[in-house]
Each structure stands twice: as structure tokens, then as C-alpha cells.
Write a structure and sequence with these properties.
The protein is an alpha/beta fold and 254 residues long. Helix content is 44%, strand content 15%. The chain has helices at residues 16-27, 39-51, 66-80, 108-136, 159-179, 204-213, 222-232; strands at 7-11, 31-36, 56-60, 85-88, 139-144, 184-191, 244-247. The termini are far apart. Belongs to the short-chain dehydrogenases/reductases (SDR) family.
């Protein structure tokens, strides 16, 4: 029950890693605000958790738009109270015919969309929630980067995805320094290949190549990412900030 009494917001809350994050925080005693696009799925997920006795609020929002993020935060605050922890998990990686677009063929609108969801959303939510955290002298922020932000894997993701995940690392270090004096820790995770529904869009030979390059010789699970995130936002990691933790089974090492 490391997060008992806390209010946590998770963006991209209905996906593989997002769902695991929500489950982990609820089982550790937090009240959790879910932000995602699908109103019907989100309300159904929230209702299912409430039936189990958990405090959950859902807000449908396009996190690539500041106004939508502001409305979602207001709704969650009204239902659950002031927010202690933010997990910037929302992310997209468009593919066409099963493959990412090459840089010379990429539509600028697609670039803008990925930057909005993957990167700008982290800025929007941090901007909205930081004042309250500063006022209370406590806060936890984790953003979901990726090994794609540290290494070139163009066979799997597009340049927009890699660029945004690398930018989240710089964002994390800057905001950690800026907010540290107020008792707020800011960290990032860099997952490797995680077994989520998104893998259905990736060719099996690409996944097998990653497995061969991974020290543990397997894919990760959403729950394993959630485990590390829950640690970073707990009291146990109170002196950890500005860090990027690889959850990749040793892929970058090899």
C-alpha cells in the first residue's frame, strides 16, 4: 500500500502498459484518474474498478491538445482531489502497411500528431499539475520514454517516435532540476520491447530480432514496467530524480 491516500493520473490509461499502471496504483491504495481517448471504454473500465471498491475517475481527452488536458485535470480533481503523482504514459507510433514511414516520405501532419501526443502532452500535464505539487511541497512525475530514445531502431519505429522519446529524456532532466527544490521528483522509464496489443502491428521477425538482442532473451510485460514506475513514485525512491531507468531486459547493454 505504498500509494495509499495519493491521487495518481495516468495518461494512455487504456493500453497495455497504461492498464497495468492503473492496476498497480489501485492495488497499492491510490485513487487513480484515467485519461484516454475512448469515452465508452474508459467509463466501462472505471465502472469495473469501482465495483471492486476502488476510487477511479475517467476523463476522455486528446492529450495532444492543451485545452483538452486542462479539462481532464479539472474533472479528475473534482472527483478525486488534488493530484500527487503524474504518469505521462500516452504515446503513439503510426505505421503504414505494418511499417513506419521513412523520414523522406513522412506526412508533416503525422509528425505533428506524434509530437503532440508523445511529447507536448507531458509538458501540458506537468504545467497544469506542477503548481499544486509545488504548493504542497510534494510530487512525483514519471514520463514514458523508450529505448528508441537512446538507440536507432528504424526497422520498428518512425523518426517522430524516436525523436519524441529522446526529447522526453531531456524534458525529464530539466524539469527534475527545476522542480527538485520543491520536493518533487521527476524521472523517466525507457521500456524495451514490451508484450502489448501494439505488437500486433509489428512483424514477428522484427520481434524475434529484438529477443535475440536482449540479454534475458524474452519480451517484457506491462506489469514489469508498472512495477518500476510504482517504485519511482513511492517513498522508497524519494532521493531518486532526473533518472532514466531502462526496463528492457538488457537490450541496450547488448
Amino acid at each position: 500500500m505504498r500509494h495509499e491516500g495519493r491521487v495518481v493520473i495516468v495518461t494512455g490509461a487504456l493500453g497495455g502498459i497504461g492498464s497495468a499502471l492503473v492496476e498497480r496504483y489501485l492495488l497499492e491504495g491510490a485513487r487513480v484518474g484515467l485519461i484516454d481517448l475512448d469515452e465508452a471504454r474508459g467509463q466501462a473500465a472505471a465502472q469495473a474498478w469501482r465495483r471492486q471498491g476502488h476510487a477511479v475517475a475517467f476523463a476522455a481527452a486528446d492529450v495532444g491538445r492543451y485545452a483538452a488536458c486542462a479539462q481532464a485535470v479539472d474533472r479528475i480533481r473534482a472527483e478525486l482531489g488534488e493530484v500527487d503523482t503524474l504518469v505521462n504514459n500516452a504515446g503513439i507510433s503510426p505505421k503504414h502497411d505494418g511499417a513506419p514511414s521513412a523520414v523522406q516520405a513522412m506526412d508533416p501532419a503525422e509528425w505533428d500528431r506524434v509530437v503532440g501526443v508523445n511529447l507536448s502532452s507531458a509538458f501540458y500535464l506537468t504545467k497544469l499539475l506542477a503548481p499544486g505539487m509545488i504548493g504542497r511541497g510534494f510530487g512525483r512525475i514519471v514520463s514514458m520514454s523508450s529505448v528508441a530514445g537512446k538507440a536507432a531502431i528504424s526497422r520498428i519505429v518512425g523518426v517522430h517516435y524516436s525523436a519524441t522519446k529522446a526529447a522526453l529524456i531531456g524534458f525529464t532532466r530539466h524539469v527534475a532540476e527545476e522542480l527538485g527544490p520543491h520536493g518533487i521528483t521527476v524521472n523517466a522509464l525507457a521500456p524495451g520491447r514490451i508484450s502489448t496489443p501494439l505488437l500486433a502491428t509489428v512483424a514477428d521477425d522484427a520481434n524475434q530480432a529484438v529477443i535475440r538482442e536482449t540479454a534475458l532473451r524474452r519480451l517484457g510485460t506491462p506489469g514489469e514496467v508498472a512495477d518500476v514506475c510504482a517504485f519511482l513514485t513511492s517513498h522508497e525512491a524519494a532521493f531518486v530524480t532526473g533518472q532514466v531507468v531502462d526496463v528492457a531486459g538488457g537490450w541496450l547493454m547488448t
